[in-house]
Amino acid sequence: MKVLSRVIFAAIITTSLHPTTGLAKDSSISISKSWVRYKPAGIKITGAFMDITNKSKTNDALISASSPIATVEIHKTTMLKGIMRMDQIDSITIPKGKTVSLKPGSYHIMLINIKKPLKIGDKVDVKLKFKKAGSIAIKVPVVKK
Asked: CATH number of the domain that 136 lies in?
């Protein structure tokens, strides 16, 4: 039992220290592999990307996101008659037992009218709100990709 307690404690500490991981208050939704795309000073828009895993037995949905540094919208990239476009959407369904990847060219979170230049290595506070699981606050690293 002591070994199990140590393993659980280590997992909790590791998860709480890792900036790209987030758990819903009921632990049904987890966030991993999050990142914000670096843009040079003067460019006030960028994207945030991540994997969202729904470990519950029912579907959930990402219904909004917010950040103190920018206006935030949920977007989906689509191709229409050979033209790529990004459109704001109301939500992203996260099916039960599945992972949905927010990635370039697909679903993503747009950070618009960024208040200050972001540097590589900065951590952006983002709060994700889910229909069933509630809110998850994460710190998302700025990287050059």
From this structure: 2.60.40.1890
The answer to whether residue 127 is domain-embedded is yes
pLDDT in tens, the chain (145 residues): 444 344 333 344 333 334 455 655 567 999 999 999 999 989 999 999 999 999 999 999 999 999 999 999 999 999 888 899 999 999 999 999 999 999 999 999 999 999 999 999 999 999 999 999 999 999 999 999 8
Quick one: which of 5, 4, 62 has its CA closest to 28? 62
On whether the CB atoms of residues 92 and 50 are closer than 8 A, the answer is no
User: Can you tell me the distance from the alpha carbon of 15 to that of 92, in angstroms, rounded to the nearest whole number?
Assistant: 24
Q: How many domains does the chain have?
A: 1
Residue 90 lies in a domain: yes
R_g over Cα of the chain: 16
